[in-house]
Amino acid sequence: MGKTVNVSGFPPEVNAMEVRQLFESITGSGTIHAIRLKKTQHGEKFYALFQFAQETHANKLLTQSTEVNTPYRLNFHEWKYEIDSKDKASMEHYIDGLLMHFGFLATPEKFKYLYSAGCSFGSGNQNLHFSAHLSEDYRMELPYENIGQISWHLSQEKDSKLLLIQLKGGPKIYEKQNQHVDPEYEKLNFCRGGFDNEWIRTTDFPSSSLIGQSSAIVFKFPRELKFIGPEWVSSSHKS
């Protein structure tokens, strides 16, 4: 099954936060990634789509649906579509707490750093996805076709591996909008990290267009991981 569950039979006065708390009392805190509440065709009641972080969470709700304690009757069904297509949990090998460096190769053996930031990293839908951990929220996508050469290097401390990606084209950069969210929309919707329509395309966020001047990116990874093309494998499995 998938990660999304369709639940119908809600009265019109419910809101996304209320039903999130209700169902996470069964599946566990933080297990719901996104919620959309919508009116039925007749407009008398609401149904809700719940996208969970993992399939096991969705399955747990379906198998334990009789434990949901409400004064109204709810109907539970599997749903094959996702609400948020950029769900981190659906990415391949999402990792947080990394460090990225933008810059260029001054020589074949020397990388010149122009800009550095903490980041998260994942892959999916023919893109590398990484987010900069700064005072503002920025998200970047690097299409596979914009990747030139990929190579691994051991850090000087020999405690981590450095993934060097030489670029044929730059990443797409998105900034999260800080505009006021419509109260009615906020009442009926929830998504960790914000929905896609809350992000807008932008240009360089560092001063002096440092990302635009970069022809390569270095990511600092735990030593036990290995990256080959668009796929991840453990270095312990490498012959």
TrEMBL record:
Top-rank taxon: Eukaryota
Q: Which residues form the RDR1/2-like RRM domain?
A: 4-67
Q: InterPro entries annotated for this entry?
A: Nucleotide-bd_a/b_plait_sf, PH_RDR1/2-like, RRM_RDR1/2-like
Domain RDR1/2-like PH-like, by residue range, is 100-226
The protein in question is named (rape) hypothetical protein
